[in-house]
Design brief:
The chain is α+β, with helices and mostly antiparallel strands and 268 residues long. It folds into two domains: 139 residues, Fructose-1,6-Bisphosphatase, subunit A, domain 1 (Fructose-1,6-Bisphosphatase, Chain A, domain 1); 117 residues, D-Maltodextrin-Binding Protein, domain 2. It is 37% helix and 25% strand. The protein has seven helices and 14 strands. The protein has a seven-stranded mixed β-sheet with strand order 3-4-5-6-7-8-9, sandwiched between helices. Helix 5 packs parallel to helix 6. It is globular. The model has no long low-confidence stretch (mean pLDDT 94). Bound molecules: D-MYO-inositol-1-phosphate and calcium ion (2 copies).
């Protein structure tokens, strides 16, 4: 069986190639289709995912994949228990509108646990990587989460799910609670980068609901490996397939959970 560093090398190769394809399309203009009322897909998403599927199939034919755009036939992990979880473009709405905040995000799950992560932002040439137990890195430099102790000294971030037209009261209600307590709250449009920014200390905390595994699998490992904490909104054990995430530098985690709990109590 290949040694895990070879898996990291493969993950890096995929996201760097993804970045080249993304930039090519970004510069010449993209063809956009609607998957839902506000949920977009471009020809670049499909081109990147096709490259990824071919590369993994040729290198690791026994591994399974889970990726956003062509996943109808994706299977659960087989005997080897290796599953590559990929978002070809995280931040598609930004990408489609010419806003340069997007990335490719790839995680390798082995026997149900994410072990390897690579996220690449091609417009800033920032490569975020992590291996479980081996630390988190940005372009090879070790990452540590921030030292903020209180919400009032923290910059937080969130995202809005694609059902937000139906769930705006709930989503914006929680947003308003955080706005009322934090130094600032941002909404950047790429959950994978939001998590990388928590890992690198640019943000102190992030929360979002109704996400998919490909949005958060890599970023969550980066936060943990940078010394941060990841859980559900109210402090339950984090599950990459569970749909929600609260990630922080650890120091403000309890305070963020208290905000989420107060909101949940009012809304149930
Ligand atoms: C989306 C982005 C966004 C988040 C959405 C995701 P996509 O992924 O991560 O920040 O708020 O919930 O679905 O569609 O750009 O891959
Ligand atoms: Ca995504
Ligand atoms: Ca995507």
């Amino acid at each position: 069986m290949p040694h895990p560093p070879l898996f990291l090398a493969t993950a890096i190769e995929v996201v760097l190639r993804a970045g080249d394809i993304q930039l090519e399309h970004f510069k010449r203009g993209v063809r956009i289709e609607k998957k839902g009322v506000i949920d977009l897909v471009t020809d670049a998403d499909v081109a990147v995912e096709t490259m990824f599927r071919k590369l993994i199939a040729s290198r690791y034919p026994e591994h399974v994949v889970l990726a956003e755009e062509l996943h109808e036939t994706d299977q659960s992990p087989n005997g080897s228990g290796h599953r590559w979880i990929f978002d070809p473009i995280d931040g598609t709405t930004n990408f489609a509108h010419g806003l340069p905040i997007f990335c490719a995000s790839l995680a390798l799950e082995i026997a149900g646990r994410v072990e390897v992560a690579a996220v690449y932002d091609p417009t800033r040439r920032e490569l975020f990587t992590a291996e479980r137990g081996g630390g988190a890195f940005l372009n090879g430099t070790r990452l540590r989460v921030s030292k903020a102790e209180d919400l009032v000294d923290s910059v937080l971030c969130t995202g809005f799910p694609y059902d937000v037209h139906e769930t705006a009261a709930d989503v914006v209600g929680l947003f308003a609670r955080f706005v009322g307590q934090a130094r600032a709250v941002r909404r950047l449009g790429s959950a994978a980068l939001d998590l990388c920014y928590v890992a690198s200390g640019r943000l102190d905390g992030f929360w979002e609901q109704r996400l998919e595994a490909w949005d958060i699998a890599a970023g969550a490992l980066l936060v943990e490996e940078a010394g941060g904490r990841v859980s559900t909104l109210v402090g339950g054990e984090f599950n990459v397939h569970g749909g929600e995430v609260l990630a922080s530098n650890g120091r403000i985690h309890e305070a963020m959970m208290a905000v989420a709990r107060a909101h949940k109590e009012e809304h149930t």
